[in-house]
Amino acid sequence: ILRDWSSDVCSSDLSKAPLTVCITGAAGQIGYALLPHICSGKTFGPDQPIKLHLLDLNIEGVQTALGGVKFELEDSTYPLLKDVVTTGDAKTAFTGADAVIMLGAFPRKDGMERKDLLEKNCGIFKEQGEYLNTVASKTVKVLVVGNPANTNALIASECAPNIPKENFSALTRLDHNRAVGQLALKAKAAVEDVTGCIIWGNHSSTQYPDINSATIKGASAKDTIKDDAWYTNEFIPCIQKRGAAIIAARKLSSALSAAQAISDHMHDWVLGTPAGKFVSMAVDSTGNPYGVADGLMYSFPVTCSGGKWTIVKDLPIGDFSQEKMKATEAELLEEKTMSFGILGK
Ligand code: NAD
Ligand code: LMR
Q: Ligand 2 centre from 254 Cα, in Å?
């Protein structure tokens, strides 16, 4: 089959004002996999010029590596890429940022308890939240990816009272995409025929991947698959532990799929979800329609339009789902108590 290249759109309007996109932890492996999505127009649109602010630790070797990434961006000659700033200073990185993708976090080391990890990251996200509060655009959209992503996002938001809470989010789109992928594999269906998967709660092994509202080619996914034991005993643990399985196999955490999910998350938030489709985003739970405690960064099914997310209402929640949603809520409440304790809030 010959591709008809002439039908492709080649006349993008590059006269739009550039969007300043800040990436923290940009010298790491997700940063390297994410930059092509952003610079090619896949994330923010094919006619959206970009200015990049790349932040990483103010350590000589790290800044040298970040400089190497800048060389490669120059060599890639992306038409949309108008400027690249590399820095070890968070204030410089966040200044005027319209979108901030926070990859930089303290990784879990051998023998570290969750409390130790929270302690390390509380400090980072408190400081970076305070900088965001003072120098970022007041309409900035923030996506936290660095783990523990939900609680890190909550801390950054708490420390940035000038920025509306709805402008902060944490990444559960990777878990959502994993659920779509596994369902498509099981049903031998195309991924684009699978809709309505939901990730509830925390980006951790307590998350609840829910397919009760999912459809495959418009028919109920559960009725199509007719295998509840697979759903309970294989699918749910697979999605909950997929990150760990990738670390075990690669000796590195997911990066290619994480970059894809980050791009999907920002794309849908900024440019809108397709009609009739919803996605999963961890967002402020305050006033949510599912009885989850207020004041958490909890993953819900959302639609996006005009740059704003809205939690999808009235989805069926049975006893099984209720129990799983409560378990992941309990973990987030515990993380919140611990981290607010560390911050003296
Ligand atoms: P990586 O270690 O390759 O890169 C992280 C980068 O962050 C490093 O370059 C490091 O120098 C930098 N960094 C650390 N502290 C910083 C700080 N205070 N300010 C600025 N930069 C800082 O890690 P990665 O594979 O790119 O993953 C990044 C994070 O994303 C990790 O926390 C990982 O656990 C998390 N993750 C989350 C998801 C998700 O779905 N939410 C998925 C995959 C990975
Ligand atoms: C993932 O889900 O792939 C990562 O969050 C795993 C991790 O712990 O870094």
A: 6
